[in-house]
Predict the structure.
Amino acid sequence: MSQAYATEEQVAVAAVRRACHLTSSVFNKLVKNETLTKDDKSPVTVGDFAAQAVISSILHHAFPGDPIVGEEDAADLREPSGKEMKDRIIALANEALTAELGLGDNESWGIGPGQEKTDSELLDAIDRGNHEGGSVGRMWTIDPIDGTKGFLRGEQYAVCLSLIVDSKVQVGVIGCPNLPVDPAHPEKGTGCIFTAVRGQGAQQWTLSGANPTPLTIPKSTPESLNFLESVEAAHSSHSFNDRVSALLNITRPPTRMDSQAKYGCLARGDGGAYLRTPTGVGYKEKIWDHAPGQILVEEAGGIVTDSRGEPLNFGLGRTLGENYGVIAAGKDVHARMLEAVQKALAETKAKV
Ligand SMILES: Nc1ncnc2c1ncn2[C@@H]1O[C@H](COP(=O)(O)O)[C@@H](O)[C@H]1OP(=O)(O)O
Ligand SMILES: [Mg+2]
Ligand SMILES: [Mg+2]
Ligand SMILES: [Mg+2]
């Protein structure tokens, strides 16, 4: 008997790999009118839309009944003013979908030469990400470009996909085209895919889907430990992390990086711990921003909770509900970190 979720993992890797090639090739060709500002003031590019179209189209061919919770929607592209951008997105998505079959690919997933899709098929694929989420049944999450600000700076970003079943993440895939394969050996170049299947461990692959390496979070000491945190101070409080670092006697400076590449780095031992603290009231974390990272860290032997020590709840809808931040670390570090976070939170409350 084959292992649980073997096909889901294979399809997810194929989809993320095609989306990674698309986003990294589009970066060099991006022009000014190919980025929009969304209602929440965050940027979205032709790369985000086209990558969601590609992943969603592949999922629809492989698992037609599965709902999708995706970050983007095609409303702006259906407006007459969005025609130029839409045409570019359709061309990019079709180029990615019709590229030659690679390792593990199957043409029944709607990919390979000759498998062009129509405009309306691809816009519908983007909009199929409108599922409301919930606690029952299967659903996929797509973040076609996580860390769009990092992508636009030419720094880290990630193509993120997960399968959630009855609120529990079962498969997670994170593609990081700009991440060094091995930080100790820059000559090996960039581009990694991280995968995890519940109960089957975590792995790092090359972008072409070769050389899987199992990942385990190494043990840390205060001297070897450092934080992985957002570049954007508006996404996670840098000063709060500094206070937690001080409480833990951490001497190394934090590594700042956009996107769920941080979870990949934690899983392979590039940094000691991931800490994300709300910067104000109102922002709710999205499930697509943490589901693949959570399973990756857990399968690499770590723990992921919020600042109360509770597991993240992926069954509440498109968001994680009220925002209590995220703490992710190896088993030996997590309890100490939780204690320090709670102490720092109590200090903050005492001040106001
Ligand atoms: N105020 C906020 N607090 C926390 N995360 C945010 C906030 N605004 C946007 N984000 C999301 O944080 C994620 C990136 O995290 P990081 O900074 O750690 O890389 C993105 O998905 C980004 O959304 P978006 O995709 O809309 O840019
Ligand atoms: Mg994101
Ligand atoms: Mg995104
Ligand atoms: Mg975004």
In short: The mean pLDDT is 95. The chain is about 35% helix and 20% strand. The chain has two domains: 6-215, 227-351.
